[in-house]
Every structure is written in structure tokens, then in C-alpha cells.
Design goal:
The protein has 144 residues and is of the alpha/beta class. Helices cover 28% and strands 17% of the residues.
Length: 144
């Protein structure tokens, strides 16, 4: 028996726009990651990129539950001795709120080279304006 491999048409990818205003970060990230992978399509194959593009707007208005706003920290390491830096969610939201969503979505993608290709289809913006109107993105309703 042969394995069925669907023909993935690069030009048939859809664009979706998601408004993150008031959405819970984890629930938003799960559904965005599923669309990036193509799990909502009948041609989903785990090792192929069959997903769509996702534009997330109002990234600074995403919501976290519990005490995560003050207690959750993100760690980065420069590779040098003493180069470990920790930032709280409030510090990241003030300077780069797009990073919160990108970090959450990337953590829900597979840990391989495919994830590097998938994360490039995620576009995150601070305000309600984005430069992808020419692609005619369809508004995506995410269940809370």
C-alpha cells in the first residue's frame, strides 16, 4: 500500500485576519498554530506545509489569565557568560507585544525545520492596521 501525498498548491493559500483584542493568549495561539499547519484542511499531512497565512492585529491587547502578567518571565541567553536576561510579560508587552504571540505560537509548532517555514506565514501587528489588504484576508472568528 502506498502512502497518499496530497499536491499542495502554494498559490491556493488563504489569508486570515484575527483580532487579538481581549483574547486569551494560549487559546489564540492554539488555533493560530492549527491554521498555520493546515490541520483545518482535509489534505493535512504532518510533514508537509499545507497551512494558510494568518495576520494577527491588536497584539498589545491580548489577555493572560491569572497572575501571569506579573509572575511569568521569559528568559533569553546571549551565549556569553552572564548573558542571561529575564523579562516579565509586562516588560515585553510595553516594548514588543508581538513577541508574546509569536513565542506562544512557535511553541505549539513542531520542533523541526518545518516550523521555521510555518512561522514565516504568521504576521503580527500592534494596532488595527496591517499592510496585507491586497491579499483580502478573511476575518477569522476564534472561539474563546
Amino acid at each position: 500500500m502506498k502512502t497518499y501525498l496530497p499536491k499542495v498548491d502554494q498559490n491556493a493559500r488563504k489569508w486570515h485576519v484575527v483580532d487579538a483584542d481581549g483574547m486569551v493568549l494560549g487559546r489564540l495561539a492554539v488555533q493560530v498554530a492549527d491554521i498555520l499547519r493546515g490541520k483545518n484542511k482535509p489534505v493535512f499531512t504532518p510533514h508537509l506545509d499545507a497551512g494558510d497565512f494568518v495576520v494577527v492585529i491588536n497584539a498589545e491587547k491580548v489577555r493572560l489569565t491569572g497572575k501571569k502578567e506579573t509572575q511569568k518571565t521569559y528568559m533569553s541567553y546571549s551565549g556569553w557568560r552572564g548573558g542571561e536576561r529575564r523579562k516579565t510579560v509586562a516588560q515585553i508587552r510595553e516594548r514588543q507585544p508581538e513577541r508574546l504571540i509569536q513565542h506562544a505560537v512557535k511553541g505549539m509548532l513542531p520542533k523541526n525545520r518545518l516550523a521555521d517555514r510555518l512561522i514565516t506565514k504568521l504576521k503580527i501587528y500592534r494596532g488595527a492596521v496591517h499592510p496585507h489588504q491586497a491579499q483580502q484576508p478573511a476575518p477569522l472568528t476564534i472561539s474563546a
